[in-house]
Amino acid sequence: MIVILQPDISKDSPEYESLFDHLKQLPNIQLRIHEEHGTQQVLTEIYLVGDTAALAKEEIEALPGVERVVRISQEYRILGRHKDDHRPTSFEYNGIRFGQDNLNLFAGLCAVDNPEHVEMMMKALKENGQQCTRMGAYKPRTNPYSFQGHGKSCLPYVFELAGKYDIKVIAMEITHENHIEEIQQALAATGNPTGVMLQIGTRNTQNFELLKAAGRQRQFPVLIKRGFGITLEESINAAEYLASEGNTKIIFALRGMKTNMGDPHRNIVDFAHVPVIKRLTRMPVCIDPSHSVGTRQAAPDGLLDIMHVTAQGVIAGANMILIDFHPVPTKALVDGPQALTLDELPYFIEDMTIARQAYEKRARLAKSFMK
Ligand code: PEP
Ligand code: MN
Question: Please, what is the average pLDDT of the chain?
Answer without folding.
Answer: 95
